[in-house]
Amino acid sequence: MKVSYKWLKDYINLDVSADELAEKIERSSVEVDSVVKPSAGLKKIVVGQILSLEDHPDSDHLHICQVDVGEDEPLQIVCGAPNVAVNKKVIVALPGSRIADNVKIKKSKMRGVPSFGMLCALDEIGFPKDVVPKEWSEGIYFLPENAEIGSDVYDYIGMNDELIDLDVTPNRGDMLSMYGTLRDLSAIYNKPVNLDYKKLNDFSNDKSADQISNRVDLEDVSSYKNRVINNVEVKASPLWLQIRLWNAGIKPINNIVDITNYMMIKFGQPMHAYDLDKVSGKQFIVRNAKVGEKITTLDEDEVNLDENDLVVADSKAPIAMGGVIGGLNTSITNDTKNIVLECAVFDSIKVRKMARKHVIHTEASQRFERGVDINNLTNVLEEASWMINDLAIGDVCEDIVTAVDKPKENINVRISLDRINHVLGTKLTVDQVKDIFERLAFKVDVKNNDFDVEVPTRRGDIHIDSDLIEEVARIYGYDNLPSTLPEGKTTIGMLSPKQQLIRNSRNKLQALGLTHAISYSLTTPEKANMFLMQDTYETDLSFPMSTDHFTLRMNLVTGLLDDIAYNQARNVKDVALYEQGRVFYKDNEDQVRPNEIEHISAAISGALVNKKWNNNPKNVDFYDIKGILENYLSSLQLNGNIEYIATNKYPEMHPGRTADIMVHGHYIGFIGQVHPKIAKKFNIKETYVFDLNLQTIIDLPKQEQQYDLVSKYPSISRDIAMLVNTEITNKQIMDVILKRGGAYLTNVSLFDVYNGKNVPEGKKSMAYSLTYQNKKDTLTDDEVNKAFDKVERNLVKEFDVEIR
Q: Which amino acids does the record list as binding Mg(2+) (predicted)?
């Protein structure tokens, strides 16, 4: 909420600057986003009067104006605004001036005619377009007749004010009003504040009850009141009212609508005005919407309603979304003669759900969501009626038609002085604490150092003694509280084994050339159900922000594929990413809270190394990402053999290039190529991925990492080449070699596979290098030959290989 510093000073005597005041508010009440003076950065923008104008000879829309700016001679200014007129006082940016966005105005020529300055619209000197009144949105702005020619324009349009932008927390709904802010400042600075409520004494002879009826059909409304005002004169609001509205970020519309918005800013109570003659049946019914009903809002947007939406309806259809926005069909126009004021308290939860669901967040909904003071409705309605009578010459009916009214009692909270001082570490006296409560306008009864505090309903954030302690602390001053050091034994901070493994995993994958990516935990139902490692049910949000963030993810791969698509769409062809995070599984459809499981995944597309003069990189294949995975898994010191078992059970993966990953018989994930159809759907090139259940890896037993002695004795290598049947796998051969290789076999590597010319059909040639080493002594040829012969014999026996 933007708070006017000048408006505050109308009620309370402040002897501090706006910046100092904002700093005090931030330390005591709510956060302050900024303090802005709208005229800051502007210069040489003055009041001018158009003396004459003529059409530009080479344009059908430009005008040549002679403008009096208080200098010896009028300035000639070429202007294209459609509403430019003689004798009007206007905003003039002189040559050398600075307007919005630091734009400098220079002497120029407009189609050959010299122009010495610029006649300005409000948005051209810094006003946001969405607060400029509609009558001035397409042309220049006319200043009041009493504006002094040649003087700065800023005071006439409220630009010399300082606006304090409050970031009000959900619990402090009272701060979304001038009066709520003033009450807080009165307590903070211990200064009196004059909060008056205007009331009309001269009413018409007509009755509201004779002209309208109202009723509430549900329990989500605590209070609903209407009053009829006849024979109003709808016109533009006086400038002082428009200034207060646009400085608060609200567009002036007309005097009736502006008064309701002014009440909202001043008191924090949203109001609405209906054109009575457009209300069918003259009925106001607060109910839930019916299935299929629609409403066109004041923003001219059509909204499809459902049975959970709260609406105000006439005898035919909805005319407002309760607590959110009014309907266009009963809006106030220049032809309106009779109006109905609405002042109500709608359920905060229902208003919030409705605003979020339809993505209609208004100033009214913001206040209803945080709660308004139900006991202040009559005061607000009376002052609004007084203003309409004053500014719109309306005939106000004395009676107020009330459909429901459930006033609240003030809350009583008990607390002791000892508890306050114990929590805050202070030595406050009874008189000091009592003074703080009275400054907050709380009624206090003191007995034996115990306080019985009566909290008014406008402070809906105070319910328990801890809330009162917070009030004492902030009014006394957080900076005045004594500082104390924590007591207790100091401990050495360290990561848990799980945290350490996760951190090591990140470091390892980054060292292997992958970049850490972070994706949204929310995705679409379709993407959530891809790459599933187990049977599960979806976890959908009740009120998603968008259709792309509807379901909690059940895999990490789709998020990485989205990241690859984003990069490749921007001509980044080589992408290697990993992500560590949680996925969300549900064992059954009725499970409320899903199981959160740690996963770690990677996705690679393109090449892993950059092209250089001596290097021509190739795109990654299955074995590249498998090598990265094996390197990562070996760093975890898992106690058990790692196996890769070909599978085609993942419909999103290539059926011939995908494998399950097993550790000592335990399934931990999968690896392979993304199916070309899925890659096309994501609009990415050939991509390889793996996805691991990190929680399972964390739970698996690990080997103790021990120092491995580096042998000082030489190693001996032996190569073996053989013809084997094509169905025999490398793993089968490796298992035999490792099992029969003897105690000194330290390494086995496949260095050649061939099935071309001179190799019989159904056969392939495979060549291995075996390394032997004794860490305690020098190996002899006899020892190595004996072990090597044993390997050959068992290979022939197991697979009928032909040693070449």
A: 461, 467, 470-471
**Which tokens is 769 given?**
């290098």
Neighbour order of strands in the sheet with 163-167: 2-4, 163-167, 31-36
d(CA 288, CA 280): 18
Neighbours of 18 (CB within 10 A): 21
* Closest to 188 (Cα-Cα) out of 53, 29, 340: 29
- Look at residue 605 and tell me whether its pLDDT is greater than 70: yes
538 annotated to bind ligand? no
Q: pLDDT at position 705, please?
A: 67
Question: Residue 227 carries which side chain, given as an amino acid letter?
Answer: R
Q: At what angle do helices 622-635 and 497-511 cross, to 10 degrees?
A: 140
Q: What is the largest CA-CA distance in the chain?
A: 124
Residues 248 and 264: beta-carbon distance below 8 Å: no
Q: State how far the Cα of 420 lies from the Cα of 140, in Å rounded to an integer.
A: 59
Please tell me whether residues 471 and 539 are part of one structural domain. Answer: no
Mutual orientation of helices 430-439 and 178-189 as an angle, nearest 10°?
160
- Which residue, 333, 337, 371, 326, is CA-closest to 352? 371
pLDDT tens digit sequence for 659-671: 999 998 899 999 9
Is 752 marked as a binding-site residue? no
Residues 527 and 587 in one domain: yes
pTM above 0.85, yes or no: no
In a domain, 740, yes or no: yes
Is the predicted pLDDT of residue 706 greater than 70, yes or no? no
- Flag whether 467 is marked binding: yes
Q: Enumerate the β-bridge partners of residue 84.
A: none
Q: What is the C-alpha radius of gyration for the chain, rounded to an integer number of angstroms?
A: 39
d(CA 44, CA 105): 10
β-strand 450-455 against 443-447: which pairing, if any? antiparallel
pLDDT tens digits, one per residue of 140-151: 999 999 999 999
How many helical (H) and strand (E) elements, i.e. helices and strands, does the chain have?
A: 20, 38
In eight-state DSSP terms, residue 612 is B
Q: Are 190 and 30 in contact (CB under 8 A)?
A: no
The pair of three-digit structure tokens given for residue 321, joined into one six-digit string: 């979304």
Host H or E run for residue 367: helix 363-370
Structure confidence by residue, pLDDT tens digits, 714-738: 999 999 999 999 999 888 999 999 9
Q: pLDDT value at position 200?
A: 93
- Among 518, 264, 502, 499, which Cα is nearest to 383's? 264
Distance CA 402, CA 394 (A): 21
Paired tokens of 600? 């770690």
Contact in structure between 66 and 51 (CB atoms under 8 Å): yes
Q: Tokens in use for 272?
A: 């609405």
Residue from 462, 378, 573 nearest 174 by CA: 462
- Region 119-135: mean pLDDT is 94
Tokens representing residue 627 in the block: 């090598």
Q: What is the CATH number of the domain that holds 7?
A: 3.30.56.10
Rounded (5°) CA angle 106-109-112: 175
Q: Two tokens at 194? A: 């004059």
Q: Same domain for 149 and 136?
A: yes
Q: What is the H or E stretch that residue 224 is in? A: strand 221-230
CATH at residue 761: 3.30.70.380
Does 471 carry a binding-site annotation?
Answer: yes
pLDDT for the residue numbered 641:
84
